[in-house]
Amino acid sequence: MKILLIFTLFLISAGGGESERVTGYSGGGVLIKCRYETRYTSNPKYLCKGSWFCGDQIRTGDKNEWINRGRFSLFDDTRSAQIWGEIMELTVEDSGTYYCGVNKDWAIDAYKPVELKVEEDLSYGKSISVTGHIGGSVNINCKYPQSHKNDPKFLCRRVGSADCSYETSVNESRRWINEGKLHLHDDGKQIFTVIINSLTEGDSGEYWCGAESDRTSDHGYKVYTTQINLTVTGE
C-alpha cells in the first residue's frame, strides 16, 4: 500500500498533475496506457487505487509480458516505455482514482493519475452467444454507447488469461473493412457489425467488440463493450 503524503512532491515526481479521464461500462473492461521516462525501464511497475492510501491492485517486476491478478492485468512495455493496465468485469464500484506507478527505491515513486468512471449503460447487451458451423459464417451486431460514435471500433480475441489481441479494426463509419475472413462495418449509429467467414473449430472462443478513445494521444485508452462467445460446431 502506497501512502501519498505530500501532494506537491507527487506532482513533481509525476511530471504533471492533470489526470487522464477514462470512461468504462459495467460488465465490460478498459485498457489504459501510461508513459514513463526511459531511465525507469528496469523498475517495478504497478497499478493502485485510492487518492491518499493507494492500495496495489497489481504489481510486477516482469518485463514485456502480461501479468494477471484476478480482474487486473499489467504489461510493462520497455520498448515504448509504457505501462498497459487492464481492468475487466467492470462494476460501478470500480470508479475512482487510479495511479500507474513506477517504484523507485529510496525516492518518491513516479505516478500517472487516472480518473476512471464506470457507467451503467442498459441500452445494449453486454454479452452475446453465437453459434456457427464449420465452413459457414456468423453475423454479429455489437451496439456501442453514443459517446464512442466517432471513435475507431475494433474486434479482439482473448485466449486464456492473455490480453485481448487485435483481430482487426475500422476507423471510418459507413464503410466495410475486409481483413481475410473478417468483415467489419460501423454504421455511425451505434451498431458495429462483424462477419466471420469460413469458420473453423479453431475460431471458437471469446471475442470483444470495443472502441478506442483518443487513439493517437498519450491519453488514449481502449474500452471493451460487448463480449462475444463464439461456438463453431461440425453440424
In short:
By secondary structure, the protein is mainly β.
Average predicted local confidence, pLDDT: 86
Rg calc: 19 Å
| Main sheet overview | 9 strands, mixed
The rounded distance between the terminal residues' Cα atoms is 53 Å
What's the helix-strand series? Answer: EHEEEEEEEEEEEEEEEEEE
Low-confidence stretches at least 5 residues in length (pLDDT < 50)? 1-16
How would you sum up this structure, described in words?
This protein has 235 residues and is mostly beta strands. Helices cover 3% and strands 52% of the residues. The protein is built from one helix and 19 strands. Strands 3, 6, 7, 8, 11, 13, 14, 18 and 19 form a nine-stranded mixed β-sheet that branches. The N and C termini lie far apart (53 Å).
Topology:
Layout lengths: L1 E2 L3 H8 L5 E6 L3 E7 L9 E5 L3 E8 L6 E3 L2 E6 L4 E6 L8 E7 L7 E10 L7 E7 L4 E6 L9 E6 L5 E7 L5 E4 L2 E5 L4 E6 L8 E9 L7 E13 L2
Parallel strand pairs: 2-10, 11-19
Antiparallel strand pairs: 1-5, 3-8, 3-19, 4-5, 4-9, 6-7, 7-8, 9-10, 12-17, 13-14, 13-18, 15-16, 16-17, 18-19
